[in-house]
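Deliverable D5.2: sample structural annotation.
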Amino acid sequence: MTLPAFLFSALGEIAGCFAFWHVLRLGGSPWWLPAGVVSLGAFATALTFVDSEAAGRAFAAYGGIYIVSSLVWMWLVEGVRPDRWDAAGALLCLAGAAVIVFGPRGG
């Protein structure tokens, strides 16, 4: 359940933040804002379904998924293709998230 929760969370957070970006930076209609608020609520709710005994650990591990998802959003929605530095940074973040998720506990 963790990966689907992370992916749904990322979609909710990115879409919600983009709604505010669209209004405040791109001059979009304020009617985007209620959808953004709902999307951010879905993000927060979905993150509670992550299988973790500590919220902070779930949030930290989610960071890697969020970064990769943001770059995919940038490419698919905004039409800006990630460059090699984006890819390298995303891989570093995913490696860090993997250490958080799969690291041994208890000592």
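Annotation notes: Helices lie at 2-24, 32-47, 55-76, 84-102. The two ends are 26 Å apart (CA to CA).
The annotation will be released with the project's public dataset once the embargo ends.
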